[in-house]
Amino acid sequence: MAQARISAKxxxxxxxxxxxxxxxxxxxxxxxxxxELRVEALREAATAVEQEKEVLLEMIHSIQNSQDxxxxxxxxxxxxNLTANRLMGRTLTVEVSVETIRSPQQQESLKxxxxxxxxxxxxxxxxxxxxxxxxxxxxxxxxxxVPAGPVDQKFQSIVIGCALEDQxxxxxxxxxxxxxxxxxxxxxxxxxxxxxxAAKTLQQNADAxxx
Length: 211
Fold this sequence. Notes:
Blueprint: H1 2-64, H2 67-70, H3 74-92, H4 104-121, H5 128-142, H6 153-160, H7 164-210
Helix pairs in contact: 1-3, 4-6, 4-7, 5-7
Coiled coil: 25-59, 164-194
GO molecular function, one term: protein-folding chaperone binding
Function: Co-chaperone for HSP70 and HSC70 chaperone proteins. Acts as a nucleotide-exchange factor (NEF) promoting the release of ADP from the HSP70 and HSC70 proteins thereby triggering client/substrate protein release.
């Protein structure tokens, strides 16, 4: 009888220790789960800062190369460029890096996708129209929506092999390149229009002198 009571107390002690360890483990796991949410929030915030930096640099560059900048006096243009360069310099002082964890296969897919985009970019000056069409097919390959034009199936399979964060970065880069092409095309058309208007004015003045 006494032996049974001793055995019961021993089992009770083991149960208490086991229960206490389980509670402690559960609390630690809950803390780690909460920390994981904060870590992901930190990465998202840092990524948002990276994207904002890219947008700001693009906007500053766009202003510097805008048609409006060509239609003001040299003094005003110089002053505005100084301001733009100062803003660009301050923007570049912000350095945020969010490293993406990749498998060897994902790393290779990223290199392949980057190489394809770089090859298209290198042909901008030779054939802007064809470069735009090619970029659109690459961008359609990254879009989850039904594309309006053709899709580069090979590029799509390569992008799918990239890490999710890299897929988003590839899509953002293509969006930026397409915007730059659109802005360049508008600037060229405006310049051609201005030249055409100037030539027409000169011709009208010449006709007026002879009449």
